[in-house]
Amino acid sequence: MKKHLFLSCVCVIFAANAQSKKIPMTEIPTPPKAAVKPKKLEKHGDVRTDNYYWLNERENPEVISYLEAENEYYEKMTANTKKFREDLFEEMKTRIKEDDSSVPYYYNGYYYITRYEKGKDYPIYSRKKGSLTAPEEIMFDCNEMAKGHSYFHLGGLNVSEDNIWVAFGVDTVSRRQYTIQVKNLKTGEIQPVKIENTTGGSTWAGDNKTLFYSRKDPVTLRSEYIYKHKLGTPATDDKVVFHEEDETFSTFVYKEKSKKYLVIGSSSTLTSEFRILDAKKPDGEFKIFQPRTRGLEYSISHYQDKWYVLTNKDKATNFKVMVTPEEKTGKDNWKDLIPHRKDVLVEDLDIFKDYLVISERSNGLNKIRIRPWKGEEYYLPFESETYTAGTASNPDFDTDILRYSYQSLATPSSVIDFNMKTKEKTVMKEQEVLGGKFDKDNYTEERIWATANDGTKIPISMVYRKGIEKDGNNPLLLYAYGSYGASMDPYFSSVRLSLLDRGFIYAIAHIRGGEDLGREWYENGKLLKKKNTFTDFIDCSEFVIAEGYTSPKHLYAEGGSAGGLLMGAIVNMAPQLYNGVIAQVPFVDVVTTMLDDSIPLTTGEYDEWGNPNDKVYYDYMKSYSPYDNVTAQAYPNMLVTTGLHDSQVQYWEPAKWVARLRVMKTDDNVLYLDTNMEAGHGGASGRFEALKEVAKEYSFLLDLEGIKK
C-alpha cells in the first residue's frame, strides 16, 4: 500500500513539475531511485537502519551509475535554464579582469607576483630581483602544468633563503594529498624526487639544503608525521623527526619570521603544542616549547630575545598576549603584555622590527591595533557599519609598512600599504569590476540584529540595491556557516552582483558556532550547545520575514560543508520558512561519520561535535543529524552539491541524504543532487570553471523566482 502511495505521489510530483517547467508529459524525467539495502547500525543499545549505507563504496560501479543518473536527472530537469546558466557564466566572467595580477610583495631581495593572463584559468607565479623594473623570472606557469589534468592545484610555495630552491606541492585529484617537488630557480630544472601524500606545506632550514614537511595518513588524511629531506637524496631516505600519535591532533611545520627558529606545531580543537629548533642546526633535536595541557591553546612569535605568546592561559576566553624570555619557554615564565578583555577577541599577531601589530575583533568587527616597541599605540580607523579588514602578506621584517586588506559587501577589496611611522596610507590596488555598470553607491549595506529564542542578539549583515521596499516581496538569500569558530565576515563579490542586480537581497547570519562575537560565541554553538547554531539561523530567518525584507515565498538559504549540516538541520526543523535551499558539500550524516574513525579527519572533530562513543553525545547528535531526522513532511526546493573526491565531507553523505529525501518528502518541490565527478571539497580548480558551478546555483534560485534573464 505504501509503495503504491509513493508511486502515486511521484506521478503527481512530476506531473506538477512538468506543468511548471513546460516539459511535455511524454518527456517527464523519472527521478533516480537508489536501491534499498538495509544495514543495521547499533550503538549504546540503539539500532538505526540505514537503507543507503552501500553508497559509500566509491569503486562500486552501481554507486557511480547512481550518481551519474542523478546528474542526468538534474540536467534534464533544468534543461530550460541551460541557456540562462551560460549567460550567467558569461556575465560573471565579464566582470573579472582576466589579465590581472597581485600587488607585488618584497621578501629577501625579490618582489613576488601572482598574475593571470587573458583566457587562461590558472595563475602564473613570478618574481623580480631587487626592483619591479627588473626582468621577470617565471617560477611556475600553472596553465602549462595543468594540461592533461581535469583538476589542478599548486600550493605550498617555499623559497630557500639563498633564493635558489623552491619547494612546491601539486594536487591533481582534489583530495588534498599533495606531491612535493623541488625546483632549481637558477637552472629551471625540477629535481626528480617526488614526495607523495603530503599536505603540500614545507619549510627550508637555514642551510638551504634541508627541507622539512608534513605527511598524511593515507586513509584518514590526518597530517601525523614531520619528515626531513636532504637535497640530492631519494625520498626513501627521508627521516621522521616527529610523529603525532594522538589521533585528535594534526601536525605542521614552519619557520619563524625572524628566520631563527624552525617550529613544529601540533593542534586539536582545544589544545596546542609547539617544538622549536635553531634553523641553522637542522640535524639537532626539537625542544618542546610548552607541553600540551588539555584546554590550553597558544601560538608563538619570535622577536630578538623573547617569544610572544597568543594564548587562552588562565581562563583568557578571548585570548591575550604574553611574553617570555627566549630560553625560558614554559608557561610559568609567561607574563602578560596585553591582558585579557571580555569584550575583545585577540585573533593574530604580526611582528616587525619596530612594531607589534595585533588583529582583534570587537562587537563583531575587525580591528587592527598598532603598538610600536617605542611610542604610543593606536588603532587603524574604520568607519563603515559593516566591513572586513585584516593584515595581508607581511613577510618583510625590517619595514615601517603594514599591508592590509579592506572590503565590505558593497566595496570591492582593496590592498593598502600603511606607513606605521607617518600614518599615511596608500591604496595599492582596488579590485576592478569590469563591464562599466558597477557603482557601489547604487547599493545599501546594513547590519541588523535578530533576537534568538534565548534572548541573544544575532547580527545579520546584508546588501541590496537601493530603492527596495520592505513589503515582503524581495527574494533574499541568507547564508551562514556557524562552526569551528570560523567568522563569516562580510566580503565583496562581483559574482554576487548577478543576484543583487536582479532584485535579490544577500545576507549573512553571524550565528553562534562561529567566532564573530568572540570565543564564547563559538563555545555556545558547539558540542552539547550545537543546536543554538540551527535555531539562531531560523530566528534570523523569521526576523527578516517579520521586518518585511522578504517572505517564505521568497526566502532562500545556503551553506556549505558544516554550513551544509546547518541547511540539513533547518529544513528538518522549519522547512516552511524557505522556498529554496542550496546545500553545498553538506555534512549531513553526523552520527555514522563520527562513529567511523577511518574516515578522514573524524578523530580530530571530537572536540567540535563530541565523541558519539559517549552515549550523551551520541544521543545529542542523533537528535539533530539531518540524515537521521528526515521525516514525512514537505521540504523546500533543494539543490544539493558534492564532489566524488571530497576528502572533507565524503560524497556519500549528500547522496544518501537525497536518496532518503526522495522517499520521505511529501511535497512536489524539486530536489537535485549534482555531483562533480572530477573534484573534491572546493569544487572545480580553474577560476572560470568554478563560475560555472555558481551559475548553476544562481539559475536555481532565479528560476524559482520566475526570473528568466
What does this structure look like?
The protein is α+β, with helices and mostly antiparallel strands. Helices cover 20% and strands 32% of the residues. Among the domains are: 31-93 and 446-704, Alpha/Beta hydrolase fold, catalytic domain (Rossmann fold, 3-Layer(aba) Sandwich); 344-432. The chain contains 13 helices and 37 strands. The strands form eight sheets. An eight-stranded mixed beta sheet has the order 30-31-33-32-34-35-36-37, with helices on both faces. A hairpin with a 2-residue loop joins strand 3 (105-107) and strand 4. It starts with a helix and ends in a 5-residue tail after the last helix. The model is unreliable at 1-26 (pLDDT under 50).
Supply Rg: 26 Å
As a percent range, the share of strand residues is 25-35%
CATH topology name of the domain at 31-93 and 446-704, in short, is Rossmann fold
Query: How many β-strands, per DSSP?
Result: 37
Give the spatial strand order of the biggest sheet: 30-31-33-32-34-35-36-37
Total helices: the number is 13
The coarse silhouette is globular
Fill in the keyword field for this structure.
Rossmann fold, alpha+beta, 709 residues, 7-stranded antiparallel beta sheet, globular, 8-stranded mixed beta sheet, 13 helices, disordered N terminus
Q: What can be said about this structure in brief?
A:
The protein has 709 residues and is an alpha+beta fold. The protein is 20% helix and 32% strand.
